[in-house]
Design goal:
By secondary structure, the protein is α+β, with helices and mostly antiparallel strands. It contains four helices and four strands. The protein has helices at about 15-20, 50-55, 65-75, 85-90, and strands at about 5, 25, 30-35, 60. The protein is globular and about 35 Å long.
């Protein structure tokens, strides 16, 4: 599970707008994350944008995936797009 939205969520929707993989959608109490679509923004940005834009600090990366897993998800979700800014993830050394 890459990211999770906690109880501090104020349901502003910022995370939904920011997600390039459309992994975040409206939920009953707070937005929900489709874990199979979440790439932690790998291939788009150097960090998970939902975490960055959340005004309530309610989103956390709870179980970081390896960069190999994030790349696999990225290629599956965006088959005709080349990943960008991957050098940042190599520096993080997540495997």
């Amino acid at each position: 599970m890459p990211v999770a939205i906690g109880q501090d969520c104020i349901t502003c929707g910022a995370c939904e707008w920011e997600c390039p993989s459309e992994a975040i959608s409206p939920g009953a109490l707070r937005p929900k994350v489709d874990q199979s679509r979440c790439t932690e923004c790998y291939g788009f940005f150097g960090e998970a944008q939902c975490v960055v834009v959340c005004p309530a600090d309610a989103i956390r990366v709870v179980d970081p995936c390896t960069t190999g897993e994030l790349l696999r998800r990225f290629e599956e979700i965006h088959p005709n797009r080349a990943p960008q800014d991957t050098w940042i993830w190599v520096r993080i050394d997540r495997g």
